[in-house]
Amino acid sequence: MTVFECEDSSDGIFTGIYDAWASRLGHANVRLQLQGMHTLELFTQYRQVVPDAEKAEKVARTIRRKMGEESYQILFRAAMAKSEEKADCIYRTLVQGLSSRISEKEAAAVLNQLTDPAICRVFELSRRVWHEAHHYMGFVRFAELKTGVLFSEIEAENQVLPLLADHFADRLPNEDFLIYDRAHDSCLLHRRQRPCVLVRDAGLDREDRSGLSFSEKEEEMQQLWLGFCRSISIEARENPALQQQMLPLRFRKWMTEERNFTA
User: Fold this and answer.
1) What tens digit of pLDDT does each residue of 226-245 get?
2) Distance between CA atoms of 100 and 167, rounded to whole angstroms?
3) Angle (nearest 5°) at CA 246 between 240 and 247
4) Helix or strand or coil: residue 138?
5) Percentage of the chain surpassing pLDDT 70?
6) What is the pTM of this model?
7) pLDDT at residue 82 is higher than 70
8) Is it the case that residue 208 has pLDDT exceeding 60?
9) How far is CA 90 from CA 104, 255, 256, in A?
């Protein structure tokens, strides 16, 4: 058995798929796993996969051509999930979807075969990532820094920043903004009228906030917003269970109204 160890990113996983396929060792004789996720096994050869944007793009183009855009989006979202087995599940799915023995119509329908364990897992991971990204589209709160940049901080379970890029770029095309994912130490950067850029290993120090000071206008607006939240709250009709259902606790830490409501 040969194990291809991939970086935990879409480029890393797709490069691993490319290398495993090109090795011609046979699909049954190879396995993909994320770097540092497993203990070493006897009688197993390990190959470190170096992320290669060109190889990853070739895999992405092949998926789009053979299986369709919708299938590609599902597989891409699965690659963003927090999961140890996702790389191999995506590979096993593509072994079926890119088979030369099936037509393009059949390839596009491969992800409907949920009785297959690997395909079912890919579908579950994709759905989980999309649900979290959809939540953040509504729960992200920006604050204006002294530099004029809009700053937001989240702590996502999955790597959702690539899925948030188009959403916020479309809604804030004339703003400079930054969304920092503390859990993955990644930043989504946007300059006005330009595409978003994803920066990994951003290195924003948890304690050093000297460069992230709010503007005076922002502090004033936060107080006004908190006052509005207090004024519309009806204590006798509070329903904590319903609130938690509509706004899960893990999203509240970085929301202005929740973080400062008791201040």
Assistant:
1) 888 888 888 888 888 888 88
2) 36
3) 80
4) helix
5) 95
6) 0.87
7) yes
8) no
9) 18, 34, 38
Which alpha helices (H) appear in 35-158, and where do they start and end? 53-67, 69-79, 86-97, 104-108, 117-139
**Tokens 């796993």, located at residue:** 33
- Number of CB atoms found within 10 A of residue 80's CB: 27
State the amino acid at position 156 in one-letter form.
A
Residue 172 CA to residue 191 CA, distance in Å, equals 10
91 pLDDT above the threshold of 50: yes
Q: From CA 55, how far away is CA 18, in angstroms rounded? A: 6
Q: 4 and 45 in contact (C-beta within 8 Å)?
A: no
pLDDT at 191 over 50: yes
3-class DSSP state for residue 159? coil
CB 126 within 8 A of CB 81: yes
Q: 186-190 and 177-181: which strand pairing?
A: antiparallel
- The answer to whether the CB of 260 falls within 8 A of the CB of 222 is yes
Is the dihedral angle over the CA atoms 45, 50, 55, 59 positive or is it negative?
positive
**How far apart are the C-alpha atoms of 232 and 222, rounded to whole Å?**
16
